[in-house]
Each structure stands twice: as structure tokens, then as C-alpha cells.
Amino acid sequence: MATMLALRFEPLSAERLVFLAPMPDVPGYLNKLCSAVGLGPRARRRLDALIEERVGMAIDDFRLVQMIEFAAPAQLLVVHDRDDRQTPYETAVSLVHGWPGATLLTTEGLGHRRVLEDPDVVAAITRFVASPTEVPVSGPASPDVRP
Questions:
Q1: How many domains does the chain divide into?
Q2: Partner of 44 at 20 to 30 A CA spacing, among 52, 59, 68, 100?
Q3: Is residue 96 within 8 Å of 123, Cβ to Cβ?
Q4: Residues 135, 82 share a domain
Q5: pTM confidence score
């Protein structure tokens, strides 16, 4: 999410991006946070207002799929594990389907936190970033979605 905000508001660009189990949206995350710490609807509305005032953007605009246009035409590799319990795998699938030319590298059994400990994942990311034209991914962690 921070990368997409930087691409939207800062004078910067990128040719290639790698997202690891990306957070789909801020409103959904805030729902989980408020539920976990016992904040009610009134406190949530106040939290939303504080964030909107600070950032200058409506909280409902913090949705990854809605921000794709700000990163175009960067190539994207999304790495996500099917067993991720923090961020839904379906988020990565939706993002890849909405981003022209994006690739999804799906892993299994790594969950949310161990993805970067896998040497195949690190090698695939390195090849993607260093490759001049294509997304060279191979090994046990392999791409399974390319719109």
C-alpha cells in the first residue's frame, strides 16, 4: 500500500515492482484492528476521520486494486502463499488480474512470514528484478496466474 501511495503522490516511478502478500485495503485492515482492540463504530469513525485529515485522502480510496493506474506501466510480480492467514490469497489473484502483464508467484506451506526465507522465492524475485524483458520464475514456487 505504501508503494502505491508513493507512486500516486510523489514524483517517482518504477519499471518493476514486487509485492509480497500485499494488503488489499486499509478499510478491511482497520475493521480487523478495531475488532481486535474493542473499538466501536464511533471510535472507528473518528479514526477514519483522523487518517483522512492526515493523509488528505478518503479512507475508502485506500484499496490496492483501485490504485493500479498510478503504477502503470510498471511490471509487477506478486508473491503470495496459499496458506497465508494474515492476507487473503484471493487479494493477490484479484490484483494480478487487474494489472496488465502482472505475474503471480504462488507458494504453499510458507504462510505470511516465511516467504522471503525460501531460496526459490528469493531467486525468482532476483531474476524478475534483474531480467530485461520477461518474468523468469521456476522451481517449486512457480507462477500460476497470468491474465
A1: 2
A2: 68
A3: no
A4: yes
A5: 0.77
